[in-house]
Amino acid sequence: MIGQTLSHYRILRPLGAGGMGEVYLAEDDRLGRKLALKILPEEFMRDASRVRRFEQEARAASALNHPNIITIYEIGHEGEIHFIATEFIEGETLRERMASRGLSLGEALEIAIQAAGALQAAHAAGIAHRDIKPDNIMLRPDGYIKVLDFGLAKLTEQGAANTNDLETPTRSLLQTQPGIVMGTVAYMSPEQARGQAIDGRTDIFSLGVVLYEMVAGERPFGGDTTGDMIAALLVSAPKRLGDARPNAPRELEPILEKMLAKDRDSRYQSAQEVIAALKRLKARVELIDDDVSTAMFEAPPTPADQAVTADYATRIGPAAAAQTSYETNVISAAGATANVTAAVVQATRPRRLLVPALIALLLLTAGAIVAFRYLSTDAKIDSIAVLPFINANNDPEADYLSEGVTEGLINMLSEWPDLSVSARNSVIRYKGKEADARAVGTELNVEAVLVGRIQRRGDELTINAELVDARSGRQIWGERLIKKTSDLIAIEDEIARKIAGKLQLRLSEEAQKSLAASRTTNPEAYDLYLKGRYYWNKGTTEDLHKADEYFEAAFGKDPSYALAAAGCAACHVAGSDREPPAKSMAKAKLVAEIALKKNDKIADPHLTLAQVHTRFDWNFAAAETEFKRAIELEPRNAQALHRYAEFLSLMGREKEATAQLRLARQLDPRSLPINQAFGTVAYYSKDYRDATRHLRDTLLLDDAFAPAHTGLGLVLEQQGQTRDAILEFLRAQRLSNEDPARLSRLEKAFQEQGEKAFWREYLVQLTAEAKDRYIPASAIAAVQLRLGEHDLAFQSLERAFEEKDGGLVELKVEPVFDPLRAQSRFHALLRRIGFSQ
């Protein structure tokens, strides 16, 4: 096959072969990219079963879209030759890595977490992999993994009897007919070996075998023959991890025990549960294992980071610091117990009968410390998640109420200094779901969960609310409230007050006054404000216009309602790249100042003014003052910390920016913009490896988050991978619901003529759009630079300066503008904007 062309793929060299096909490195003659081409061997062409399984692999894998699953470009055949074109992955298999230099504990956990993420996506699509093993996990040089070979995957039969949770029958390994072995013996589950129904829990068992082997250096079930392996798999307990690797953390043993349970009902029931358990362990390992922390995690905080963290701890109150101190004492006590045990064993070796008793006594002491921790948390709850209230009517017109009540309660409960409340971004993924409180507690690391249902009939609201202990599942408080829609403000107050009473929380008189001053007593104004927040959270251009209208109407109903005015101001800033800045930013500044005259104790208008000072006035000192004031007013406002970090990054102060982002992520760990911002900071500082890692981690949270694909495209572009970069840009535009005709022209230009044609078409489209709506001149300059038109790009930048284009504030750090940095006129432009040289 070497040198031949199959369809439009030119075959370069062989990469490997397996039972389901031969794999070659090939080049796409249309797009000029390298890829892997799997071809069904000629001797199997007439075997209908093999052809069917080969095509099944393609269908299964191509249905999945996940950063840790190999990407399928095309499924096809030419004549009687069937092939699958996939991305070509540079790197080595996990098997090769374990054989060459082994893995640290941190690396093993990270690989298992990423693999579990791939399985979670597959299981959600109704696909069980059935053949998880080290040979099917590829490690890329950047630390990312890819799960390969869905050749044994079995798609769920929709509507089949007795079929659910991916369950499909397989053939028993204990039979002897050729061609019926599904999976690899050493890594398969007991039910797979017996020929029982298969579901996603089979993959969890196989991943447990892989994780055990990564950590221990050997598999949990051994044997010289296939029969021996099967016997061990079915009846034998795995060798204790501590015996195989004495320095392995004890916390890993129960995780592996649960993953490797022979009864699948005793295993983790979903890959998400595995991810949560492994991430908790990885966090603990990071604290105590220097090798792991330097290999797998971000660098330890600098003195500047520590100073920021200390200042933040002072502002949010003593609760978090006391918790950290308590955990440190427990860890220290446990470590001391272990040291004393070792010393006792050494000193009393001749008196062997005393050793077991002493060890038992010391272990009881350590156990008492842990028990005290759990008993004390049962009495005291200091963290809570408010899940989106379920819209019991399934009425789209009432959807804003369920989101509004949830967000209102989050904001109110966040005022209590001794209570940590999960941010909206962390809980919104549970919207419309009947979530299990204990599972949510594990996923969000909270001790209590507030769940509720809201039903509207005419002007009457029925709200059922329940506060559940996430550790035990017991109800702490619950109530059914029937009120008028006009009583919604009072309902939220009542729920928050009763929760605070149950949790024995106290709010200072000053804080109570501040909270009351920020709200409205006008029910119509509040209803309009909730609708504004609902559309604001959607974030599209059309929705922002609707949000602005509702905020303005709310302010019209209650001219003292500062939050409504602040909402209007925020909408104008958000739309500043869609209308001339002189118009949008001027309105934003005016309305923000009105909001502050009504109430200068809320953060939102300060954040708006900070952005106006940054992107329009170019008064960076005033901007920083406003950011700091917003954070001073609301120290647990993750958005304020995030916005300040963005500002610091634009100023070239990446270490300070990263420190602020860490604080923001502690408050809102699942926020996609915050997680993406780590990648943006690294990109601006030209640490492209770190930028890639953060952006891909963000896509693990949600692969449909378009800005992260755009960011990844920028990183790839700066590394010279321009074709892959454009593919990411195109994916981002698809996810952003870009006009199909416009997108089609871009794709056609790229496929037929390459990168330059893509950017020429993009420039044509921007120029045409600029006749009907505002297009930032800085965006046009960035495209002109990609086409090598430096003089035209600088003319566009001059026009951007005249228009007060907010994009100019990125010139100092944006690598796209590097081709102009050697020119004196570029440095003169930076000085005119306000950047010191």
Describe this structure in words.
The chain has 837 residues and is α+β, with helices and mostly antiparallel strands. Helix content is 56%, strand content 11%. The protein contains 35 helices and 17 strands. Strand 9 and strand 10 form a beta hairpin.
SSE layout and pairings?
Blueprint: E1 5-6, E2 9-18, E3 21-28, E4 34-39, H1 48-62, E5 72-78, E6 81-87, E7 92-93, H2 94-100, H3 105-124, E8 127-128, E9 137-139, E10 145-147, E11 154-155, H4 190-194, H5 200-216, H6 226-235, H7 241-244, H8 252-259, H9 271-288, H10 290-296, H11 303-316, H12 318-347, H13 354-379, E12 383-386, E13 390-391, H14 399-413, E14 420-421, H15 424-427, H16 437-444, E15 448-457, E16 460-469, E17 475-484, H17 488-502, H18 509-518, H19 523-538, H20 541-557, H21 562-574, H22 581-598, H23 604-617, H24 620-633, H25 638-650, H26 654-667, H27 672-684, H28 688-701, H29 706-718, H30 722-735, H31 740-753, H32 755-769, H33 777-786, H34 790-803, H35 824-833
Parallel strand pairs: 12-14, 12-15, 13-15
Antiparallel strand pairs: 1-2, 2-3, 3-4, 4-6, 5-6, 7-9, 8-11, 9-10, 15-16, 16-17
Helix pairs in contact: 3-5, 3-9, 3-10, 9-10, 11-26, 12-13, 14-17, 14-19, 19-20, 19-21, 20-21, 21-22, 21-23, 22-23, 23-24, 24-25, 25-26, 25-27, 26-27, 27-28, 27-29, 28-29, 29-30, 30-31, 31-32, 32-33, 33-34
